[in-house]
Amino acid sequence: MKFYVKNGGRLILMRFDTGAFGSKWCGVWRPPLKLIEYWAFKVDDEWLSPQNCMGFDGKRHLYELKGMRVEEEVLVGDGVKIRLRFKGKKKGKVKVQMEVGINIRRWEENAHDRRYEVVGKRDGFLVKNELGSVRVGGGKFLRGGLYRRHFPGAYHDWDWLEEEQSVFVPGILEKEVDLRKVKEVTFYIEKRDFEPREMGFGYLSDFGFCYLAGFPWFLQFWTRDACFIMLNEIKKGNLKAVKEALLTISKFERDGEIPTKIELDGKAYYYSVDVPGLFVIALCRYLEASKDKKMREKMRGLVNRILRKRMEGLIESYGKDTWMDSLERDGYCLDVQSVWAEAFRSAGKVYGRADWARRGEEIVRVINEEFWTGDFLLDRLGEDDITANALFPLFFKQLPKDKARKVLKRLESEEFTTERGIRCRSSEDELYDPDEYHLGRVWGLLTGMMIVAEENYGRAEKAKKYKEIIERNKGSRCIDGVDETYDGDSLIPMGCCKQAWSEVWV
Amino acid sequence: MTDINLCFEVHQPLRLKPYYEPDGGKDLLERYFDMEKNKKILRRVIDKCYMPANNIILKLIDDLGKKFKVSFSITGVLLDQFEMFAPEMIDSFQQLASTRSVEFLCQTYYHSLASLYGTDRSEFVEQVEMHREKMKDLFGKRPKVFENTEFIYNNMIAKTVEGLGFKGIFTEGIERVLGWRSPNYLYKPPEHVAKKIKVLVRNYRLSDDIGYRFSARWWDQWPLTADKYATWLAATPGDVINIFIDYETFGEHQWPETGIFWFLGSLPYEVLKWKNLKFSTPSRTILKYPARDVIDVFEFNTISWADIERDVSAWLGNEMQRFAYEEIKKIEKLVKKRGDPKLLRIWRYLQNSDHLYYICTKWWADGDVHKYFSPFDTPEQGFLTILKVLSDFKEKLL
């Protein structure tokens, strides 16, 4: 059984390939709101259910009913179209009924007590509560009105938190189909006519386009993740989308700070030490690739505001403000210095600012001298943690070849490299804990960074090996998705099942 | 997810001879300390407690891997005795260390009250450094978390310990300091005292459920089973639950017949049945969680984990204790001036807090605990003995 996601850029459908809506994350979302908990079809007296679902080809679920087969195809964009196609020898009329479980709630909520108002329409209904509304159509509306609670999460093996959900069933949509004349029937959510889209991780919010971090639950713009996505999208030539994302994020810049997270209702959270630096890097890579002079000038002031605050000393971290945001990494972190060194260096080059370039080189010098242990790099100055953050200076090509080879050798060893990719912490480290988020799990992000690190130092064969790992990881829990993390020892997939920064590398 | 830090204090004092013997020989260790008795008691505790408990923990780690973790705070005094009488125990703890599921904490080498020696912290610092180096030598890692003798804690101790580079310090989670706040979070000293060190506070109720009440038939929760205890842990909100007990609880304070070893062997499995619980170690907890609030402990309000008062009255509560304590302190200059490591070592063994603990005269329930541990018949006998030893030792120094 696998999870799948159809991201139409405005509405998002998440479901299992058996046709089940078996998790609180399943259903139709318009982030930050969930709209639909599930739908279910009954053809005459038989439900289309996981029990008679014979397969899913990536586009269509196929159900085997008495005397006929039914294909259910779902198209997503600004709306959702659900097409049922009837196949087989059965002739005559069949009655198709659609039950829709409405659950208009915020992303962070679970069960709630909101009441709904239902307005009957010509071919369906509109249902609303104080958060929003959703239109469902395609059949004659037989009004009902049932409030109930349920626990959709039957898949405990995945370790997803599954909580009680509230569902409202406003009634049934019914349509009689004469199979002699018609072989297909369509129901819809929100819009009847729209252009279906497959947006990957891209999302068109009310305030602009950017990238979602992962499915099922990272339905926000996490800008750190977005920056890593952009670095790859630039390489793939998707410059238009990257420019849109950069512009969207730039709207939230405040006094030289870039938010770590932007919720899709426009609320922004500023709490990272590295994200403004990553933003500058992504912007400069875009400017180098696109030669977009207008954009360069448009962003000059913003880049200046970001960099001028950080012209002195090393960049200090407090609390959980690094990418390892489950850890309190106070002090001077290697990954942070590395990001800022690259930000200064690339901005210096793109904007022709020698002072920025010098500042970047100075931080690189500190990385090479103060963080260097003889065969590896410190995770933080004055601390003895052995982590995969040593990858950052390799990713940004900040080490000379001889040092890089030593670090890569260690990262390639069993201490870090597993069949699923790179562990965030050495298995030899005192605090190594394989199932802790940032104390031992294998990360898709790091595995991807390793590809670039190997390429940066002319080790194409090794890079290929890590590419193959990501390819192999694809589809373990989510169709075409690469997991966020894996247990460092058992290598069981953990976290989100389709994480953007795990899969954009291939 | 709540971290469970299961921590064990492992300590055996070097007991004085119950009666001072003026003709006790030239070797001061033999002259003052009852080495035969110490050896005998150590052997008993090894057989009844340390070895079987270590073996159970090793098996648990074998079976559960990184899912099960514990921490030990072993005194230097005990490690010295292991080296003298039972080196196999060092091997056993080294075997535990090699699993990397075990964290070793630091404390004062001689389990002393040196942290209370006024503004001059040099003796305290030396003992801490000695212990830290011993841990590094024996177990390969310099500890990052400190547990002062008997959880004695105040702002100045926190400041000194931070200055020594420790990331965390343990103390008792008592209401006198926490007020309405829960012991199940990390705290920090006031900003003007220390900037970075985090304070781990012991959940004394849940700790004492095992350490003291486990076999108490008067207790309405008797018998305590592992599944019941795990249920309590699972129902306890917070970032971390610090269960910190004497290692001697297993087989010594609580006899094997009480089912305490069965409890130890079952508890991890029961805890791991709960998705919101995870075994951890103090260093991991410190890296994961922020300090949620400040605890401000002035020196006149010093905390410990001893007795009902949870202050330093277990060692400095009466005139005899305070007199002996001052006498021990007075020798410092003399002994350090002599520069003889053997004499220094003897003086430091005399600093062991247990010698003062035995002189306690509290007449209520805690008195029984003091009596239970004491090699002396009465506090006065303990007082006279240590005075005579100190007097003799002083003569040797002059």
Describe the structure.
The complex is a heterodimer of chains A (506) and B (398). Chain A is α+β, with helices and mostly antiparallel strands and 506 residues long. Chain A has a domain at 3-189: Glycoside hydrolase, family 65, N-terminal domain (Beta-galactosidase, Chain A, domain 5), CATH 2.70.98.40. Chain A is 28% helix and 28% strand. Chain A is built from eleven helices and 28 strands. Chain A has helices at 223-236, 239-250, 275-290, 293-308, 334-351, 354-369, 391-395, 401-412, 444-456, 460-473, 500-503; strands at residues 3-7, 12-16, 27-30, 33-43, 46-47, 53-56, 60-65, 68-76, 80-87, 93-106, 117-121, 124-128, 133-137, 140-150, 165-178, 184-189, 202-205, 208-211, 214-215, 221-222, 261-262, 268-269, 417-418, 421-423, 442-443, 485-486, 493-494, 498-499. In chain A, the strands form six sheets. In chain A, strands 1, 2, 3, 4, 5, 10, 14 and 15 form an eight-stranded antiparallel sheet that branches. Chain A has an eight-stranded antiparallel sheet with strand order 6-7-8-9-16-13-12-11, with no helix packed on it. In chain A, strand 3 and strand 4 (33-43) form a beta hairpin. Chain A is elongated and about 80 Å long. The model of chain A has no long low-confidence stretch (mean pLDDT 96). In chain B, helix 6 (155-163) links the parallel strand 4 (145-147) and strand 5. Chain B folds into two domains: 2-301, 7-stranded beta/alpha barrel (Alpha-Beta Barrel), CATH 3.20.110; 315-397. With 398 residues, chain B is of the alpha/beta class. In chain B, helix 2 runs parallel beside helix 10, helix 3 (76-85) crosses helix 4 (87-98) and helix 13 (319-338) packs parallel to helix 17 (379-397). In chain B, 48% of the residues lie in helices and 12% in strands. Chain B has helices spanning 28-32, 35-64, 76-85, 87-98, 122-139, 155-163, 175-178, 204-211, 226-234, 260-271, 282-288, 313-316, 319-338, 341-350, 353-357, 365-373, 379-397, and strands spanning 2-10, 70-74, 102-104, 145-147, 168-172, 186-188, 198-202, 240-246, 277-280, 291-294. In chain B, strands 1, 2, 3, 8 and 9 form a five-stranded parallel sheet that branches. In chain B, strands 4-5-7-6-10 form a five-stranded mixed sheet, with helices on both faces. At the A-B interface, loops of A face helix 11 of B.
